[in-house]
Amino acid sequence: MKRAVILSSAVLGTTAIVSQIVILRELLVIFYGNELSIGLMLASWLIWVAAGSWILGRFTERLVRKPLSIVAAQASAAVLIPVLVFLSRTIKNIFPLSPGEIVGIAPMLLSSSIVLAPLCLILGFTFSLLCASYPKGTASAERIGLVYILEAVGSTFGGLVFSLILIRFLTPTQTGFLLGGLNLIAGLLSAHTIRVRLIPATLLTAYIIALALGATGKLEELAISNRWKGLELVFNDDSIYGNVAVISLGEEKTFYENGLLAFSTGQRRSAEETAHIPLLAHSDPEDVLLLGGGVSGVLSEILKHPIESVTYVELDPMIVDAARKLSLKRANEAIRDRRVEVVYDDGRRFIKLSKARYDVVISNLPDPLTALVNRFYSVEYFKEVKRAMRPHGVLSVGVTSSENFLNPEQQKFLASIYQTLNCCFDYVLLVPGDYTYFLASDDPQLETVTYQTLLDRISKLGISTGFITDGYLPYRMDPGRILFFLSSIKQAEKFAINTDLRPAGYFYGTVTWLTRFRSRSASLLSRISSLRPLWHVLPFGLLFLALIYPTLSRREPNSPIVAAVFTTGYSEMVFQVVVIFCFQAFFGYLYFRLGVILTSFMIGLALGALIINRKLSALADPRNLFMKIQMGMCVYPVFLAIFLLWVSRVSQVHAVPYKGQLAFAFLPIIAGFLGGVQFPLAARILFAESGGTGKVAGYLYGVDLLGSCLGAVLASTILIPILGVVGTCMLAFVASVTALLLILLSRVRQKLWH
After folding, report:
1. Which residues of 461-486 are buried (b: 16+ CB within 10 A; e: fewer)?
2. What letter does residue 655 receive in the DSSP assignment?
3. Which of 121, 227, 673, 749 is the most exposed place for a label (fewest CB within 10 A)?
4. Long-range contacts: 69-73, Cβ < 8 Å, 24+?
C-alpha cells in the first residue's frame, strides 16, 4: 500500500499542475485574458480544490476500502481531464457572444466553475484520501508531510516537463489524454486485486482504442470548429506565447490572439492613422522603429514615406508566419522590402540592447489591459524609448477612447497615460477620437504641428492615402476637440503615474473595461483606488480582531497556527504573482523561464517539507520552530521588496545580466521552502489536538488553498496596481506579522494559565 500511495501522490501533483496550466490557458483564449480574469479563474481553481480537501476530506476516515477509492478517484480524473479540456475550449458557445467579444465577470465565473469544479473536487479529495491511506507505521503528521512532499515533487516534474518540452509538441487534447493515461497506469499499479484492476485496465484499453482511431485529432478539429462556429477559420495554431487564429471574410483577414481581436487587414483607416500621423509630425524621418502589428497594413503605409529603414519588432513569429501562409499580398510585400528588418523579440528587451537610434518610434500595441502590455506604457519604458531616439525624435502611443465623451473611468485612464508621458518628454500632442494618439517628443516643433502641417507634408511627399486627407484631418485634429479632451483629462481626480512597479494604467484600463458591462465592480474598484494606503491594511486589522478572542480563550488553542497557515498561503501566492509580474516588467515575456519560476516554488516546497519531515517525530517543541518559520515569513517580503527595487534601478540604466535573471528563479525557492517547512509542522501541532489523518490533512490543505486564493485575486487585480509592488510586499508583511503576534499571544497565555 505504501508504494501505491507514493506513486499516486506523485501522479496527483503532476496531474494538478499540468491540467491547471492546460485548462486555464484554454479558458484564457475563450475569455479575456487580463490579470482580472486570470485571478478569477485561478481563485475558482483553488476554491474548488479547497472544497474537495476540506469538505470531502472529512469522510476519508469512514471509507472502509481506501485502495478502491484511490483507484476510483484516478479513474474519474482520467475520464474527466480530456472531457474538461474539450469543454474549456467550447463552453463560450453557451453564451450569446461573438468571437473576440469581451466577456463579463458573471459568465466568466460561471463557466470556469462548470469546467473546473469536477476535477478540482477530485484532486482535493484525493490529497486527503492519500494522507489517510498511508500505512499506519508512520506518525500521522509525518504521513501528511510525506504526501505533501510527493505531491510537490510530482508538480515540479510535471511543471518542468510540460513547460519545457510537451507544450511545444502536444496539442491540449493530446496532453489531456496523456494525463488521463498516466492516472490509469497509476491506478493499475496501485490496485491490489484483480477486480479493482479491471477499472483502470478497461479504461486504459478504451484509451488505446481511441488513440488508434485518431480520437485526439478528431476532438481537436471539433473543438476548434465549435470555437469559431459559423465563421471561416483559415489559420489556427499555438505557439509558446498563445493561440493565433485568423478568420476570413472575403479578402479581409481578421487576426485573433488568445481569442481577442488583434487587428484586421481591412482596417485601412486605423493603419493609415497609426503610420502617417507620427511620421508626418516629424519634419524628416529616416529610421523608424515599429513595435507590433506590422502585418495589419501599418508597415505598408510606413513604406510609402521616403525613409531609409524600418525595424519591425514582433514578439510572436507566428503572426508573420500566418501572413506568409495566407499569402497576404500587402503584408508580404512590405516584409520583403529591402528597407525592412523583421526582429522577433520582446520590444523592451530589443530597445535596451539595441545601439541604433530612431527618428520615429511607433508603439502599435494593444491597450494596457494586462500587466504584460502595461509595461509598454510606463515611465521606465518611455525613458528607454527616449534614449533610443534621436534629439528630434517622435514617439507615438495609441489607446482606445471615446469620440466625444469621456466618463470618469476613461478620464483617469487617459490622464494616467498622458501625465506619464509628460514625466518623460517636454512636449505631448493629443490627437483625440475613438482611438486617441499621443505624440511625445523633446522637440519644441511638435507644439506647432497642426492638421495643416500634416496636409502640407503629405502633399509635398506625394503620398496616396484614403483617409488622411483634407476632408478628414481637420475634423480629427480640430483644435476645439483637442482642448475639450485635454480639459476632460485634467478633470480626472486622484490618478497615479504609470510605472513598472505600480501599473496604474493597467488598473484604470481594467476599470474602464468593466464599465462596458455596467458592472458594479468598476465603481467599487474606482473607489478602492481613491482610498489612502492606510485603509488597505484595514482588512488585516479586522482579521487580527476576529482571531484574537479565540486565541486568548481556552476554546481554540490552535487558531494562531491555522491563521499562520492561511496567511502563509496568501503571502506565498502574492510572492509568486509579484516575482512573475516583475520578471515580465524587467525582462519581457519569456515563457520557458516563467515556467521555471513557477516550478521553482514547488522545488522549494518539496525541499522544505522533506527536511522537516525527517525530524518531525523528534521535535520536542514544534511550536517554537513554527514560530521561527513564521518570523522568516515576516522577513522575506521585506527582502523581496528591497531586491526588486534594486533590480528596477539597475534595469533603467542597462539590461540586467543573465545572473540577475537567474535570481528570479531562486526567489520562489526560498518562499516555497518556508511554506514547505511550516505545513508539516502545523499538521504535527494540530494532530496532537484532533484525530483523523485525512480530516486534519484536508482541513489544513483547504485553509492553505483559501489563503492562496485570496492572494491570487487581490495581488493581481487590486494590490499591485494600486499599492505597487513594494506596497503589496509590505501588506504581505503585515499579514505575516499579524499571525506571528497571535502565536506570541498564545504562548504568553499558556505561560500565564499554566
Report:
1. eebebeebeeebbeebbeeebbeebb
2. P
3. 749
4. 69/129, 70/4, 70/5, 70/8, 70/126, 70/129, 70/130, 70/133, 70/187, 70/190, 71/187, 71/190, 71/191, 71/196, 71/199, 71/200, 72/199, 73/122, 73/125, 73/126, 73/129
| Locus of grid cell 510572492 | 575
Q: Which segment of 222-231, 349-358, 520-529, 740-749 scores lowest on mean pLDDT? A: 520-529
The two counts, helices (H) then strands (E), for the chain are 29, 11
User: Contact at 8 Å (CB) between 152 and 100?
Assistant: no
The dihedral through the CA atoms of 198, 200, 204, 210 has a sign that is positive
Residue 313 is which amino acid? V
| CA separation for the pair 163, 599 (Å, rounded) | 9
Which residue type sits at 368? P
d(CA 309, CA 303): 9
Residues with Cβ within 8 Å of residue 76, at least 6 apart in sequence? 122
Q: Strand 252-257's sheet: what is its strand order?
A: 232-239, 242-249, 252-257, 260-264
Question: Torsion-angle region of residue 462: left (phi > 0), alpha (psi -120 to 50) or beta?
Answer: left
Dihedrals φ, ψ of 690, to 5°? -140, 150
* Residue-level pLDDT at 339: 95
Predicted confidence at residue 155, as pLDDT, reads 86
User: What DSSP character marks residue 103?
Assistant: -
CB 299 within 8 A of CB 340: yes
Q: Is the Cβ–Cβ distance between 560 and 704 less than 8 Å?
A: no
* Residue 278 near residue 453 (C-beta atoms within 8 A): no
Q: Is 494 exposed, middle or buried (0-12, 13-18, 19+ CB in 10 A)?
A: exposed
CB atoms within 10 A of CB 286: 14
Phi, psi angles (nearest 5°) of residue 344: -100, 100
Residue 448 is classified by DSSP as: G
Distance in angstroms (rounded) separating the CA atoms of residues 133 and 131: 5
Pairing of strands 242-249, 252-257: antiparallel
* Whether pLDDT at 306 is above 70: yes
Contacts for 641-650: CB closer than 8 Å, 24+ residues apart? 641/725, 641/726, 641/729, 641/730, 643/667, 644/501, 644/578, 644/582, 644/725, 644/726, 644/729, 645/501, 645/726, 647/582, 647/586, 648/380, 648/500, 648/501, 648/582, 648/586
pLDDT digits (tens, 9 = 90+) for 307-358: 999 999 998 899 999 988 888 888 889 999 999 999 998 888 899 888 899 9
Question: Which residues pair with residue 360 across a beta bridge?
Answer: 288, 394
The three cell numbers of residue 724 are 505597487
Q: Which residue has the cell 480640430?
A: 478
* Banded pLDDT at 688 (limits 50, 70, 90): low
**597/583 Cα distance (integer angstroms):** 9
Report the distance separating Cα 15 and Cα 11, nearest Å.
6
Phi-psi map region of 170: left, alpha, beta (phi>0 left; psi -120 to 50 alpha): beta
Q: Is the Cβ–Cβ distance between 573 and 711 less than 8 Å?
A: yes
Find the mean pLDDT for residues 43-60.
83
136: left (phi over 0), alpha (psi -120 to 50) or beta: alpha
Beta bridge partners of 436: 399
CA 103 to chain centre: 17
Asked if 438 contacts 429 with a C-beta cutoff of 8 angstroms, the reply is: yes
For residues 80 and 184, is the Cβ–Cβ distance under 8 A? no
Residue 205 grid cell: 484499453
Question: Which residue in this structure is represented by grid cell 465603481?
Answer: 523
Rounded to whole angstroms, how far apart are CA atoms 362 and 273? 11
